[in-house]
Amino acid sequence: MDAAAAAPLPEAPQRKHQAEAVDPLFAAAFQQAVAGNIAAGRAGHLRLHPEIFWLPVSENCNLRCIGCDDVITGFRKEYLAPADVRRLLSASAGQASFSEIDLTSGEPLLHPQLSEVIDICHELHPKAVVSVVSNGTIPVRGKYRDAYARLDSIGLSIDGATAEVFEAVRVGASFERFVQTVKDVVALRDQTGRPAEIQLCFTACAMNLHQLPEVVRLGKSWGVNSVYAQPMEMNIAPIRDAIGHLHLDHMDPAERTRWVDEAVALGRELGLEVAASDGLYPRPKEEEKSTEPQAGPSLAFEEKVAKLGVGVRRRSPDGELTLPHVRQCQYPWTQAPGIRKMGAAWHTTLCCYMSEAANTELAARYDLHDMDKQSMLDLYNGAGYWQFREDLAAGLTHEACGDCAAALTHGPSLLQHLAWRIDALCVEHGLSFPGGDALREQLMQPQATVHQARKLVNHLHQAWWQPHPQPRPVWLQELMAAARELGPPKETAPAASGSPSA
Ligand code: SF4
């Protein structure tokens, strides 16, 4: 580690999202919307549709990176057969379209028929971007070059800016080899147009965070499109025992913040997109958190929503202290499960941030393994998945989620839940929501803003406030009251988004 030798960074301002106050009105509105949507899902009035179809194609990898729990469970030379890819994608093809099909798992380039798999994806979902995250060790040659050249998007995992750090994290890899792969993929893109999107993916721990700014510099010099950084999760005991001392929480909070801010600022200066997940930043220390939600009637609406659920502790019914950012995680609301096949058996991965053992346990608990009789979307909207969402919100998956930092990235979105409430209520009451389609689409985007929430409230006002033969649901009456309190919409510029793509 050469952090000590690096030049000191200028002071960076404290992040706003470290604030702890939560307005109980908005926390209640969020919980009410979640509960309403779970009930609507169970009743068949709400059907969720993730944008990305996650299809893990490889159970095999050639590296043994620190922090990877697959190293503990062991890799298998198993790959999803093209026939299974076709069947899974065909089952959902008539139900919905996807913006992306993500083939990430193990090292996907090791799949011996990856080109054929990608062709099937393009054939059945022609509008979907086909993507992988790769470790960058497979040379851009021969049949591998054919596969690289069929991809629309690739993430290349770089966890250090020097051979010493990179090779200490990505055990078994050569930094020199990795750099050559990046350059070759960039040359391929410039020659053929594919993969159009090349992203460097950085998983941060105390050993490498100080190199994130240099990774941004390297990314710019190599000609990649973007850099994405997230914390290394350490959710299982063998990983914590081995490298727990490298967790970001062991870093000095100010230094940790400065390295991330430096990387983001450098990206802006160089004109390279840098997405830093919220989990990279320090969280408030336990003793500094409030144990009760703090009322904030004088806070601006934007602040109330921005602070929703962050940094406040709650107790579950049995008195166990749980972290609300985990309980309010939106991962299973917006992200698809991974559908894998090992031997003849199907395996459902509910969340890529959980250990494989936790995923296996939860998939069994919620009866989510049988993919012979249902599509991914049917599974996603089935009774088991709604129970998983409810249990997550109730803190009952805490042993699987642990102290998950990724939940901050998949944080609360009152806006999305409002959009889903509209859909569900329209279905339930057999009503249409004129002019609402475009707005709903906007609200489903990660960069949806409070300004759009106000538009939603206005739309609702126009669409529902008029006399109507059917009684208006209580929830809508409450929303209308909230709308009146908010006053007329204020047009403000949408906030910038740092949404990750890998
Ligand atoms: S809290 Fe973390 S591990 Fe749990 S579902 Fe959300 S992202 Fe996954």
TrEMBL record:
CDD domains cross-referenced by the UniProt entry: Radical_SAM, SPASM
Matches recorded under InterPro entries: Aldolase_TIM, Radical_SAM_PqqE_MftC-like, rSAM, rSAM_sf
Pfam family, one: Radical_SAM
Cofactor: [4Fe-4S] cluster
Radical SAM core domain segment(s): 47-273
Record has S-adenosyl-L-methionine as a keyword: yes
Region (Disordered) residue spans: 277-298
PROSITE patterns: RADICAL_SAM
Keywords for the protein's UniProt record, in alphabetical order: Iron, Iron-sulfur, Metal-binding, S-adenosyl-L-methionine
Record PANTHER family: PQQA PEPTIDE CYCLASE, RADICAL SAM DOMAIN PROTEIN
Descriptive protein name: Radical SAM core domain-containing protein
Organism: Ideonella azotifigens
